[in-house]
Amino acid sequence: MADLKSTFLNVYSVLKSELLHDPAFEFSDDARQWVDRMLDYNVPGGKLNRGLSVIDSYRLLKEGQALNDDEIFLASALGWCIEWLQAYFLVLDDIMDNSHTRRGQPCWYRVPKVGMIAANDGVLLRNHISRILKKHFRGKPYYVDLLDLFNEVEFQTASGQMIDLITTLQGEKDLSKYTLTLHRRIVQYKTAYYSFYLPVACALLMAGENLDNHVDVKNILVEMGTYFQVQDDYLDCFGDPQTVGKIGTDIEDFKCSWLVVKALELSNEQQKKVLYDNYGKPDAENVAKVKALYNELNLQGVFEKYESGSYEKLVTSIEAHPSKAVQAVLKSFLAKIYKRQK
């Protein structure tokens, strides 16, 4: 895996160099330095799970055949396109959410002299994906399908972000809107498509598959993405900040979290009042009251039950799939996230 990661990072350097010398634009030294720094700051800094899983998935779909250098490069390039997409979303997300830090450093728009230039940088990041796809995939029979896939997933993610933003509108602090159905819709569109379906769909296209024949795979991955986000919501409140790597603020931020949705479902009138009075307030004492209620309702136990139920359902769906290679891809995804602590 360490070797795979270093190969993957080498491909980043190649793609970055190509973008910095794109013949469609005459770069000044200043412009080239800006984009270089912007890319290094925003693209390769995360865990790279989404990108690496394109290579993993493609390898499993090839059922043990050794991949040649060209296949490794192309699968890595698609993986980086997903990391570029993620960077584009996060740069703009941080501006919308007025966030302070991301991956342990100041958000890009908070870096001195960057400010709102970050909005245009987000647009550039999105355009880099099209440039990468054009340069490396234009001659492939699945080129149009790749473009369609990235366009559709971007649309789904932006629409999920919109539901999330309009739900949490500052003035509308109305908890009664928060239901499991709404939570699921936000998660499905905002996270599951680009984090879970997109890497596997890229690998399937590279392997010569038609995505229309894999709707069941999409459904399983969207389920997995939902399970992943419920874990995230749980860890935001009950995880160890040292392990998780960040201090959770879902309660203060009035997030439509799985925990608050479950709490609303399980509360009596008196307990609901505690939620209505304290959820979405920045003070530590309000947050403590919400957490105390979560403990009173035994949400940790409710989560554990949800986790084992989800896992069993996913395994059953995966094992019903006719292709052993596709099963292997889905099982490898599930193994990475089951009972995770961060």
UniProtKB/TrEMBL annotation:
GO cellular component: cytoplasm
Cited InterPro entries: FPS1-like (IPR039702), Isoprenoid_synthase_dom_sf (IPR008949), Polyprenyl_synt (IPR000092), Polyprenyl_synt_CS (IPR033749)
Keyword set, alphabetical order: Cholesterol biosynthesis, Cholesterol metabolism, Isoprene biosynthesis, Lipid biosynthesis, Lipid metabolism, Magnesium, Metal-binding, Steroid biosynthesis, Steroid metabolism, Sterol biosynthesis, Sterol metabolism, Transferase
Keyword match Magnesium: yes
Molecular functions (GO terms): (2E,6E)-farnesyl diphosphate synthase activity; dimethylallyltranstransferase activity; metal ion binding
Cofactor list: Mg(2+)
Pathway: Isoprenoid biosynthesis; geranyl diphosphate biosynthesis; geranyl diphosphate from dimethylallyl diphosphate and isopentenyl diphosphate: step 1/1; Isoprenoid biosynthesis; farnesyl diphosphate biosynthesis; farnesyl diphosphate from geranyl diphosphate and isopentenyl diphosphate: step 1/1
GO biological process: cholesterol biosynthetic process; farnesyl diphosphate biosynthetic process
Keyword Transmembrane helix attributed: no
UniProt superkingdom: Eukaryota
Biological role: Catalyzes the sequential condensation of isopentenyl pyrophosphate with the allylic pyrophosphates, dimethylallyl pyrophosphate, and then with the resultant geranylpyrophosphate to the ultimate product farnesyl pyrophosphate.
Record-stated family: Belongs to the FPP/GGPP synthase family.
Name the record gives this protein: Farnesyl diphosphate synthase
Organism name: Sphenostylis stenocarpa
